[in-house]
Amino acid sequence: MIFSNLKGTTTRMSKPKxxxxxxxxxxxxxxxTLVTGNKGRLPGERPxxxxxEHLIAQELYEPVVVKIKKFSGHPLEIDAKExxxxxxxxxWEVELHPNDGxxxxxxxxxxxxxxxxxxxxxxxxxxxxxINYGGRQFFYPDAKRIFIDIDRTISGRDHNGExxxxxNQADFEFIRVLPPGGYTKQGEVHGKDFxxxxxxxxxxxxxxxxLAKVINMVQSAFDNGTFTGGIWLEGTPSLxxxxxxxxxxxxxxxxxxxxxxxxxxxxxSNDGDHNIIDAxxxxxxxxxxxxxxxxxxxxxxxxxxxxxKGDDRPGGYKATGGHGGVLGSPGPPITIWYKPAFRHxxxxxxxxxxxxxxxxxxxxxxxxxxxxIPIKDDNGFLLEESIPKVxxxxxxxxxxxxxIEGWDAISDANADCEVGILAxxxxxxxxxxxxxxxxxxxxxxxxxxANPYGFGSGTQMAALAIxxxxxxxxxxxxRSDLEGxxxxxxxxxxxxxxxxxxxxxxxxxxxxxxxxxxxxxxRNPRNPxxxxxxxxxxxxxxFQKIFDTH
Length: 550
Prior knowledge:
It is a single chain. The protein is an alpha/beta fold. The chain folds into 2 domains: 13-26 and 138-349, L-asparaginase, N-terminal domain (Rossmann fold), CATH 3.40.50.1170; 355-549, Rossmann fold (3-Layer(aba) Sandwich). It is 19% helix and 18% strand. It has helices at 144-151, 210-223, 239-249, 272-284, 419-433, 458-468, 502-516, 530-549, and strands spanning 2-4, 17-22, 55-58, 64-69, 91-96, 103-106, 110-111, 119-120, 171-176, 229-233, 256-259, 294-297, 300-303, 307-309, 317-319, 326-329, 335-336, 358-362, 370-374, 389-394, 443-449, 474-478, 495-496. Helix 2 (210-223) crosses helix 3 and helix 7 (502-516) crosses helix 8 (530-549).
C-alpha cells in the first residue's frame, strides 16, 4: 500500500482573517544563507565539515515514491513494536507531491561563474563586492513562506504533534508595507521598495517618510472590514518605534500585535516562529480590542509604549517606565492582567482621524498671519512629506565647559558652543522657508539629559532655548530607562517627556507636531521678549497635555 496525502473535495468552514504586515529589516523574515551542501560539491572543492548533510526546505519538482525505514522516527519506536500495524515489510512506502509544500532536502544549487559547473555558494559571498555580495537575498518578500514552513512543521510540530497550527485557526493576507526583501526583476529597488540589513555592506533603512506609508497601509487595511486583527513583523531594533507610532496614529479597535525574532527563520532555536503563533492566538482571543497596539514576544504581551529591546537574545525585550508595561501572557491560556492607562489608537488625540488635513498655526508670536501645511491627502491619508524632522541631543557629564565660561545663569551661557544644535536649527529654518515641498516643514528636538531630570549642560539648554524660540519644540527626558516621570523642576521653554525614553519621546513629538504645528517664533530667538516667551510657553502647554496622556 502506498500512502498519499492527496485529498478529495471537502466543505471549507469560514475562518477569521488576519492581515500580516511586513516591516523593515525583519530578522523574523530572514533566513540563514543558502550554502551549497556536500551533495552539491565536486571533488576537490571545500567539503563542509561534519557527518550530516544540512537540509533546506524546498519543493519537489515532480511526484516521487519514497521508502521510509520503519521505527526511525524516534529511538524508542521499536521498543513498542507490538503496537504498530505490520504490513509485512521493513519500510513504509509514501508518494510525495509538489503541492504537498516544502520538504527538508539537500541544497545542491551552485553559483554561476566562468567555469563549466559553477562554484558552491558560500557564506563568504555576502562580503565579496566583486560578485555583488553574492547577488542573492535571504529576506523574504512577505511572510507567506514563513507561515507555510510553520504549518509544514519545518521548524517543529504543535503541542499535539501535528501540523497546520496557523492555517487551522485563520486565513491570512500578506501585505508588504516596508518589506525586507524585494522583487528586483520586477523593478523593485533596495532602499526604496524594500529594506534589508544583510549583506551588511549594503544595508538599507527606511526613511522618515515611510512612517506615513506605515499608518496609511495599516489604517486602510483595517478600514475595509475584512480583518479580525493584524500582525506586524519588523526587525528587533526598530519594532518598538514603529509599534508606538501605530499606537498613537491608528484609529481602530482591531487588535494589532507586533512580532520580531532575535534569530532568523530556519536557524536553531529561532524564537520568531513561536512569537507568530502566540500573536495569532492573541489576535483571535478577543481580548485585545482595548489594549492598543502591543508586542507579543518571549511569551509576554507588551504595551508598545513601554516596549524596548535590551539584548540580542531570546528574552532580550523589556518594559521601560518603571511601572508596568507587561500586560499579560499569550498562555495558554491567554491572560490579560493590566490595561494601558495612556491614550492610544481609537482614543488617541493624535490618531489619523484627529489630525487636520491642512495644519494652520501662527508662525510669529506678534503676527496674525497663518501658516498652512498640508498634512493629509483628499482620502484622509498622511502625506509622506508632512513627516516632521526631530533630532535627539545627548548629554553627558564631564562634557561641557560650563564651569569655566564665567556665566552666572543659564540664560547667559554661550549657546555658540553648541555648534551641532545651532546647525540643526539653521538647517530647519532653511527647510521651512524653501519652496521644496519634499523638505520637512516641522522640526523639533529631544534632549536626553541627566536622569531623571532631563537637564543638559548650560550651553545645551541655552542653544535649545533658541530652538524653542525658533518654533521648534524641545522635549526633555532622562538618559536611562526612567522609572518615573521627568520631574517638574526647572524646565523653561521645554516639554516634560513623562517616563518615555528619547526614541519614544521623538515619536510622540513627531505625532504631536502633526496635530499642533510649530511653536510661535520670537523675532529674535536669542533674546525673546516677555510677551513672546509667554506666547511660546502657552503653546508648549498644549504639547504638554498630549505628553502627559499619551
